[in-house]
Design brief:
85% helix; 139 residues
């Protein structure tokens, strides 16, 4: 019974265009990642320009040894600020999911069905992975 339900669910997912929606969402994620990497590179270039401007501006006042030290101090300050922000993010405790918010009967039934039909559940995961990996290509 579980095998037929899984087969019906997979057929419905493939026929309903869920595969195309998954491929589209993956493409959007990849494009967003590339845009984020470009933004990071451009931000680093802008930071380099700012440090060069600081160096040029401080050269007459601080001399040939003081200007690079001032630029280095500015970079160290930015690095410390970034490290402090990362530390604050990592230090914040994770939110715990309250198990009472999920229907207990559904979880118990799902656990019972997976326990009784382990082979079918593994086969369904394998087939779903193969369908997603094919990416909508025909047979």
């Amino acid at each position: 019974m579980m095998g037929t339900l899984i087969t019906l669910a997979l057929r419905a997912a493939v026929e309903s265009g869920a595969q195309n929606a998954l491929r589209d969402s993956v493409m959007r994620a990849v494009i967003a990642g590339l845009c984020a990497m470009c933004a990071a590179v451009l931000t680093l270039a802008a930071l380099g320009c700012a440090v060069a401007a600081l160096w040029i501006h401080a050269l007459p006042t601080l001399g040939p040894a003081g200007a690079p030290l001032a630029a280095a101090a500015a970079l160290v300050g930015a690095a410390l600020a970034a490290a402090g922000a990362a530390w604050l993010v990592l230090r914040r405790p994770r939110r715990r999911v309250d198990p009472t918010t999920m229907p207990r009967q559904m979880l118990a039934e799902a656990g019972r069905m997976v326990g009784q039909h382990k082979g079918a559940a593994l086969l369904a995961a394998l087939v779903a992975g193969m369908v997603v990996a094919r990416g909508g290509r025909g047979p």
